[in-house]
Amino acid sequence: MSNSKFPANSTLAVHGGEHWPKPHNAITTPISATATYSFRDTAELVSFMEGDIAREEYGRYGNPTVSALEAKLAALEGTERALAFASGMAAITTAIFALVKSGSHVVLFRDCYRRTRQFVTQTLDRFGVTHTLVDSGDMAGLAQAIRPETRLVISEAPTNPYLHVLDLDAMVAVTKQHRSVKTLIDATFATPVNLRPSDHGVDLIVHSATKYFGGHNDVLGGTVAGNTALISLVQEARDVLGGIMDPHAAYLIIRGLKTLGLRVAQQNRSALAIAHALEAHPKVRAVHYPGLASHGSHANASRQMRGFGGVVSFEIASDLAGTGRFIDALTIPRIGPSLGGVESLVEQPALMSFYNLTTEQREAVGIKDSLVRYAVGIEETDDLLVDLMRALESV
Ligand SMILES: *Cc1c(COP(=O)(O)O)cnc(C)c1O
């Protein structure tokens, strides 16, 4: 795990960003359950206001448990600073709000998280921020889309549900030609164990900490990492918008991060084995996993990533109902949205995020009725494989 190209290993996950000694000489970071902080006397308050001393002031601006998480995140991401938010969407929307104003233009790769696309194309649109959608991985399209008023290029790596992996070096080569353009990558599906966008010159890296960081399907959170100048802007926006993470959530995510390397290694291993087994199965029409040579992003993923992640998407050789019967025949994964936790989860996008569309409308946005998204947990690889093969018999 100590590959210098990918320094986000388990040693860093356990020890990165930790400050010693901790209160009461505890090994773990305590939960500072406080909404506000007191000043010893007026002189201390004045020194704080003058900027002579750094300390906590009020819960919306910062909390020691949240700060401890933020230090660990910066260590894992390889950035100067990081911030924690109440959810992934709080992180994404606050970061974007911090960097745009009326008249700004944003470039968004088309295959991004549905709510991020909704925020850019509907919410920002109401405030006079325009956008251009670019097809997944289309670098010529990206170069063409950038205008003098472009401030931000937003993408995901890998994307959902087809797991496209952008050539980050190529993207940054295009954006760096324009001084006012910043890049923002949602790397939730990769985690810093598999991919460190900062090593490729990406400016802001966001995550839904609800997924792999928390890792146990028991807490919502979001993170933004980047250099001091950009993170200061995002912090000003967080102070105003109020989406800071709760200290209890921060405690759970610090705890989750310590096993991130172990969990992701197991999830990488199982997902790759499952992808290979499904690709060889007659009742599976297509498998989308960047670890497979047949995947369009295999070259980019192999160059940039240490592992290919824990999500496998595939198409069953059946219709909407037959695919549902396959999912119902699985005994280990629970049916549910989300990914990255210890429990495997499975979903049929046609019946979840895209339920309100007709089969034809779903085809138009590239979602087949027979598509299955399998988010691998940390169960034994063989148990997951046996369960999958048995369920395929029912197709
Ligand atoms: C889940 C998810 C989000 C949103 O995060 P929340 O914690 O649910 O707000 C954003 N991006 C990606 C890629 C996600 O998977």
Task: Describe the protein in words.
By secondary structure, the protein is of the alpha/beta class. The chain folds into two domains: 3-257, Aspartate Aminotransferase, domain 2; 260-392, Aspartate Aminotransferase, domain 1 (Alpha-Beta Complex). Helices cover 39% and strands 15% of the residues. The chain is built from 15 helices and twelve strands. The protein has helices at 10-15, 42-49, 64-77, 88-99, 114-126, 139-145, 168-175, 191-194, 228-241, 247-258, 260-279, 298-304, 320-329, 359-364, 381-393; strands spanning 81-85, 105-109, 130-134, 150-156, 182-186, 204-208, 222-226, 284-288, 311-316, 334-335, 345-347, 371-375. The strands form two sheets. Strands 1-7-6-5-4-2-3 form a seven-stranded mixed β-sheet, with helices on both faces. It has a five-stranded mixed β-sheet with strand order 8-9-12-11-10. Helix 13 crosses helix 15 (381-393). The protein is globular and about 75 Å long. The two termini are 39 Å apart. The model is unreliable at 1-6 (pLDDT under 50). Bound molecules: pyridoxal-5'-phosphate. Residues 87-89, 113, 156, 160, 186, 188-189, 208, 210-211, 220, 222 line the site of pyridoxal-5'-phosphate. Pyridoxal-5'-phosphate binds at residues 87-89, 113, 156, 160, 186, 188-189, 208, 210-211, 220, 222.
